[in-house]
Amino acid sequence: MAETHGLAATKRSGSGTGAARAVRREGRVPAIIYGGDGEAESIAIEARLLERELRKPSFFGTLLDMEIDGTKTRVLPRDVQQHPVTDFPLHVDFLRVTENTRINVDVAVHFINEEESPGLTKGGVLNVVRFEVEVFCRAGSIPESLIVDLTGTEVGDSIHISAVSLPDGVRPVEGDRDFTIATIAAPTIEVEPEPEDEGAEGEGEEGEGEEDGGAEE
Amino acid sequence: MLQPKRTRYRKQFKGRIHGLAKGGTTLTFGAYGLKAVSPNRISARQIEAARRTITRHMKRAGRVWIRIFPDVPISQKPAEIRMGKGKGTPEFWAARVKPGRIMFEVDGVPRDVARQALELAAAKLPIETRFVARLGDED
């Protein structure tokens, strides 16, 4: 079930690129809280504290008690914008929730008993089709992860959502079909390529020679 | 080695690589990846050398994805030739890589094996790189 962590934040005034950059220069990350009954609130979080939360497993499945200037609000992280090079968080979206709010949330898939899978021990490769599965559940009962047991799986087998036992009150958003979570693929045999593809390069050179000749004339 | 099946034009302008990658900056297929931190052209030969290093270090376990494709023909003039007389011959293919681009992704191996494989592959590339993992995958 979902854990609850505390996170301190401050209200921020102003909106837009300039105000957000000013907040970032102070070592804080701009964020927003929306949804529920209240208005959208612009806040700022200490970058150090946010990064610590981001490193924890299942950030998007963890309820946070956001303390904004003394008042606590229960929120669920919905999106993180990251810098394309440094992956530093640039902005975070939080959804205001209560224990009974019903939401769609991505839950990480974990695989266990890999050593008890004959397919994997024979050299097969676990091909994860979905690292996360979107489920519909109450905010208070978000599963920490979906556990997939690989015991007895052979090469060529597929593991579907129907093979995963979901807690009560949790159902996949794509409930209308039995989608694949992972497959056990045969090991790929590496074929050493030919040392040089002389033919293609030779053709190119010939073509160029003719063109050069034409230009000189 | 990777190269386009056919192209509309044989030769392209050299160009410059400005700015940061605007797509392909997050892990999509694997659990770990190698991200470019500086811009450069990466030749098909360098991509192949890096790929081979990764698969060999992973002892052919797991899977490797290449997220860049060398679709730029690079021309060169022969040695000791006078300047002029048109553009040189296309000699090899290269991918233009901007900072932030995930170049390789791997999965199906432990974190330390993936990290070492990607670090060895990075030594084959002409750019600065960074090892990346999915959000929530602690160091």
Task: Let me know the largest β-sheet of chain B.
Answer: 4 strands, antiparallel
Q: Which stretches of chain B of 5+ consecutive residues score pLDDT under 50? A: none
Mean pLDDT of chain B: 93
Q: What proportion strand of chain A?
A: 35-45%
Give the SSE string of chain A.
Answer: EHEEHEEEEHEEEEEEH
Can you give the helix content of chain A as a percent range? Answer: 10-25%
Low-pLDDT runs of chain A: 197-217
Subunit arrangement of the protein? heterodimer
Number of strands of chain A: 13
CATH topology of the largest domain in chain A: Ribosomal Protein L25, Chain P
Provide the gyration radius of chain B in Å: 17 Å
- Overall outline of chain B: elongated
Structural class of chain A: alpha+beta
Kindly state the percentage of residues in helix of chain B.
10-25%
| Average pLDDT rating of chain A | 82
Summarize the structure in words.
- The complex is a heterodimer of chains A (217) and B (139).
- Chain A is of the alpha+beta class.
- Chain A has two domains: 4-97, Ribosomal Protein L25, Chain P (Beta Barrel), CATH 2.40.240; 103-185, RNA Polymerase Alpha Subunit, Chain A, domain 2 (Beta Complex).
- Chain A is 19% helix and 39% strand.
- Chain A has helices at residues 17-25, 47-55, 118-121, 198-216; strands at 4-11, 28-34, 41-46, 63-68, 71-82, 89-96, 102-112, 125-128, 132-138, 146-149, 158-160, 171-172, 180-185.
- Chain A has a six-stranded mixed barrel. In chain A, strands 10-7-9-12 form a four-stranded mixed beta sheet, with no helix packed on it. In chain A, strands 8-13-11 form a three-stranded antiparallel beta sheet, with no helix packed on it.
- In chain A, a hairpin with a 6-residue loop joins strand 5 (71-82) and strand 6 (89-96).
- Mean pLDDT of chain A is 82; it is low at 197-217.
- Chain B has 139 residues and is of the alpha+beta class.
- Chain B has two helices and seven strands, in the order E-E-H-E-E-E-E-H-E.
- Chain B has helices at 44-57, 111-122, and strands at 32-36, 40-43, 63-66, 72-76, 89-97, 102-107, 129-133.
- In chain B, the strands form two sheets. Chain B has a four-stranded antiparallel beta sheet, covered by helices on one side.
- In chain B, helix 1 packs antiparallel against helix 2 (111-122).
- Chain B is elongated.
- Chain A binds chain B through residues 54-59, 80, 82-85, 87, 108, 123, 125-128, 131, 185, 187-190, 193, 197, 201, 204-205, 207-208, 211-212, 215-216, and chain B through 1, 10, 20-22, 25-26, 31, 35, 37, 48, 55, 60-63, 85-86, 88-91, 99-100, 107-108, 132, 134-139.
